[in-house]
Amino acid sequence: MKIKEILDQLEKIHQERFLEAHHDSYDLHQPDLDALDCVMSLMKILDESRLDDSVKIDELLAASNIDR
Predict the structure, then answer these.
(1) What is the pTM of this model?
(2) What secondary structure does DSSP assign to 11-52, as a single string?
(3) What is the pLDDT of residue 12?
């Protein structure tokens, strides 16, 4: 599977889960959606990087909204 295909699948999962969470008034915090957003951000950065690019950890953390 190519990165574009993985991102498409993740986006579909995200949309479905978001709709479920939106309709469930008891589900006010969605850590799975936060994790999915993080993974999608990381995948996009890695997709945009060339194979010879060095990706800094700080860039990945900033893009994924992960606190140290």
Answers:
(1) 0.65
(2) HHHHHHHHHHHHH-TT----HHHHHHHHHHHHHHHHHHS-TT
(3) 93
